[in-house]
Amino acid sequence: MMRSIGFLVNPVAGMGGAVGLAGTDGKADEAIRRGAVPRAADRALQALSPLRGEEIRWYTSAAPMGRDVLASAGIERCTVLHHPATPTTAADTRAACRAFLEAGVDLILFCGGDGTARDVLDAVGREVPILGIPAGVKMYSAVFAVNPAAAADLIRRAGEIPCRESEVMDVDEEAYRSGRLTTHLYGYARVPFIPERIQGGKQVFEQQDEERAKDDIAAFISEVMLPEMLYIIGAGSTTARIMERLGLVPTLLGVDVVRNGEILVRNADERTLLALLDKHPRAKVILSPIGAQGFVLGRGNQQISPAVLRKTGLRNLIVVATPGKLAATPLLYVDSGDPDLDREVGDSLQVISGYRIAQRKRVIHPD
């Protein structure tokens, strides 16, 4: 039996990440002013291209919310049910989803971030399964495939695999931009589920033992830091503790750059990082995976782009996490936006989890 899928793209999703805006909701114009380029269409194209020739009846919104991406993927036979405004808005996402629902689709496939997921849920609730192609900045909701290749695999097998009740999270972006992570459960959606193909929701770890572990990690990292070396330090409370150990004030949810014990740049964007690496080519990147989700790259740290990582070299990637976080995070993922770079990471990463203590964690590449 031929499946039917409603497909839409939020064309501005994720634009704020590389330019240090920590999100794009209400900030698309500012992201463009800072030099951001659209990335959602490219992410959607990675998911759709392997589906060319599949027995799927496609419904979509007109360009730039879907029809153009289907055409680029070589999928010409589709029905346009919605024509968005210029510029597109959240109302267009909801209207397109309602049109898909009326057409009786088996699945709604969307490309965006947490804000797009909330708009889709508002329109369809639990009446039809949904699946997200990750293209936002943070993506704490558990309705996204771990990367575009995983989305393609899930679509091929939709109807044959079970659906899971998965969390859609509401993230306060204004609070996030000011360094406070404020989330709450927005609702539940039905999502086709295969382990290692769908990301989990973020968990936050604040137990007393975790705080001691952060201190131990910070003590070790501060001892092994080299003079004249550039340190690009990503978001999170564990990496923030390293900054505090150095006597520096961190940008909790941004990327800071440190050299010789001093901050060179706070809340750096991709362009700034690339310029600094031209001047200081000896550099290391310190990151912590998102708790329970396991993403080291591609969630909340798009400033540390494939171009940045190729300049630093993957051998200079340092991953840190507390034992509690690692116990709840059985697998690690990388979704930098460059599948070749992701594969170069290899099948495992060493994670520093205490003072001179490390664990090796498996890295999954669902492509």
Helicity, as a percent range: 25-40%
Question: What sort of overall outline do the alpha carbons produce when their principal axes are compared?
Answer: elongated
Write down the secondary-structure element order: EHHEHEHEHEHEHEHEHEEHEEHEHEHEE
What's the gyration radius in Å? 20 Å
Mean pLDDT value: 89
> How many domain units?
2
User: Count of DSSP helices?
Assistant: 13
CATH class category name of the largest domain: Alpha Beta
Query: Could you list the spans in which at least 5 consecutive residues all have pLDDT below 50?
Result: none
The CATH architecture designation of the largest domain is 3-Layer(aba) Sandwich
Query: In percent, how much strand structure appears in the residues?
Result: 15-25%
- Any idea of the CATH topology of the largest domain? Rossmann fold
Which structural class do the helices and strands define? alpha/beta
For the termini, the CA-CA separation is 26 Å
* Major pleated sheet: 9 strands, mixed
Total beta-strand segments: 16
Lateral arrangement of strands in the main beta sheet: 10-9-8-11-13-15-16-14-12
